[in-house]
Specification:
- The structure is a single chain.
- The protein has 297 residues and is of the alpha/beta class.
- It folds into 2 domains: 13-260, Thiamin diphosphate (ThDP)-binding fold, Pyr/PP domains (Rossmann fold, 3-Layer(aba) Sandwich), CATH 3.40.50.970; 263-297.
- Helix content is 38%, strand content 15%.
- It has helices at residues 31-44, 64-67, 80-90, 102-108, 110-119, 164-171, 184-196, 210-216, 222-232, 265-291; strands at residues 52-56, 71-74, 95-101, 124-129, 175-180, 201-206, 233-235, 252-259.
- Helix 7 links the parallel strand 5 and strand 6 (201-206).
- Helix 5 (110-119) crosses helix 6 (164-171).
- The chain is globular and about 85 Å long.
- The structure holds iron/sulfur cluster and magnesium ion (MG).
Length: 297
C-alpha cells in the first residue's frame, strides 16, 4: 500500500520559492534549465546564497527573480542593469546577477547594457535569447533572425538582428560566453566562472520558446528545439565573437570567447578618489608654502 504521508520532494526545492509554484512558464520552455544552471553555478563557485542577488527586468525571463529563493528584484522594463549597478555599489560584498531576456536587455535596456560593459561594472549578466518577445505576443525582437516570422513580421523579418556576444565584446565586457539551455553542465560551469570573476560578465543563453517563436516558425516542441540546437552547435572558444551572428539554420558557435582581467568600475572610482585627495593635499601644501600660512586650511 502506498504511503501518502511521504510527499515527493522536488530536487531543487531548496533553491526555489515553492510557494510561487506552479510557475507561469510554458511546457518545453528553456527557462527552467537556465535557473537550475544559475543556482548550480553559484554553489559551484562557493558563493553563499545569502550574498547572491538576482535582478530581472520584464518578460518571461523577468519572472526568474520571483522563483529563485534568494534576494531578488523584479524591476521595470529595460532597467535591470542600472538597478543592479546600484545594488552592487551600495554593498560590494554582494554577488549580483542580472537574468533577463534579449528584448529587455538589448531593446529598451540596450544603452544601459553597453555602458555597464564599458565601465566594467562588477555584474554577471545572463541574457536569455529566445529570438522574440514571448510574453507580450510574439513581436519582433532585436534578435529575431532575418526572414523568421513573428506577429509583427508576418511576411518574414527584414531587419538584421543583433549579435549579442559581438556587442558585449565591443562594449568592453571582460567575460563573454554563449551557450544554449541544452548545455546544462557547460552553462553551469560558465556561470561559476563568470560569478567568480570581478568585472562585467556576459553570457548569452539560446533558449527554446516553443509556444511563440517555434510555433510561428515551425520549430517543433521544446525538446525538438533542444535537439536542433545541439545538432547545430559548434564549440569554439577561439572564435571571434564579433563574427558569429546567429541565423535560422547555420551553426550556433558556442564557447567562452573572452576572459580578461581589467580594472572594475569600483576600482577606477577608488583610484579617482585617491588622485583627487592627493591633488588636494598637494595644492594645500603648495599654497601654505607660498603664503607662509601654518596648518592646513
Ligand atoms: Fe517560455 Fe516562450 Fe512560453 Fe515565454 S512564451 S514561457 S519564453 S515558451
Ligand atoms: Mg525574448
Amino acid at each position: 500500500m502506498q504511503d501518502n504521508s511521504v510527499m515527493p520532494v522536488h530536487p531543487e526545492e531548496n533553491d526555489l520559492r515553492m510557494d510561487r509554484m506552479p510557475h507561469i512558464w510554458c511546457s518545453g520552455c528553456g527557462l527552467g534549465m537556465i535557473v537550475s544552471a544559475y543556482m548550480k553555478g553559484v554553489k559551484q563557485a562557493g558563493i553563499s546564497i545569502e550574498k547572491a542577488v538576482v535582478v530581472s527586468g520584464i518578460g518571461c525571463t523577468g519572472r526568474v527573480a520571483g522563483y529563485v529563493k534568494l534576494d531578488s528584484y523584479h524591476t521595470t522594463h529595460g532597467r535591470a542593469i542600472p538597478f543592479a549597478t546600484g545594488v552592487k555599489l551600495a554593498n560590494r560584498e554582494l554577488n549580483v546577477a542580472v537574468i533577463s531576456g534579449d528584448g529587455d536587455l538589448f531593446a529598451i535596456g540596450g544603452n544601459h547594457l553597453i555602458h555597464a560593459a564599458r565601465r566594467n561594472v562588477d555584474l554577471n549578466v545572463i541574457c536569455v535569447n529566445n529570438f522574440i518577445y514571448g510574453m507580450t505576443g510574439g513581436q519582433n525582437a532585436p534578435t529575431t533572425p532575418l526572414e523568421a516570422y513573428s506577429s509583427t513580421a508576418p511576411y518574414g523579418n527584414y531587419e538584421q538582428p543583433f549579435n549579442l556576444v559581438g556587442i558585449a565584446t565591443a562594449a568592453g565586457a571582460s567575460y563573454v560566453a554563449r551557450w544554449t539551455s541544452a548545455h546544462t553542465k557547460r552553462l553551469a560551469d560558465s556561470i561559476a566562472e563568470a560569478v567568480s570573476k570581478p568585472g562585467f560578465s556576459f553570457i548569452e543563453v539560446i533558449s527554446p520558446c516553443p509556444t511563440v517563436f517555434a510555433r510561428k516558425n515551425m520549430g517543433g516542441s521544446g525538446l525538438d528545439l533542444l535537439k536542433k540546437y545541439m545538432k547545430r552547435t559548434k564549440i569554439d572558444h577561439s572564435a571571434d565573437p564579433t563574427k558569429i551572428p546567429l541565423d535560422m539554420s547555420n551553426e550556433i558557435v558556442c564557447g567562452v570567447f573572452r576572459n580578461e582581467e581589467k580594472p572594475t568600475f569600483w576600482e577606477n572610482v577608488q583610484k579617482g578618489t585617491e588622485r583627487k585627495v592627493k591633488k588636494t593635499m598637494e595644492y594645500k601644501v603648495t599654497k601654505r608654502k607660498m603664503t607662509g600660512q601654518r596648518g592646513l586650511k
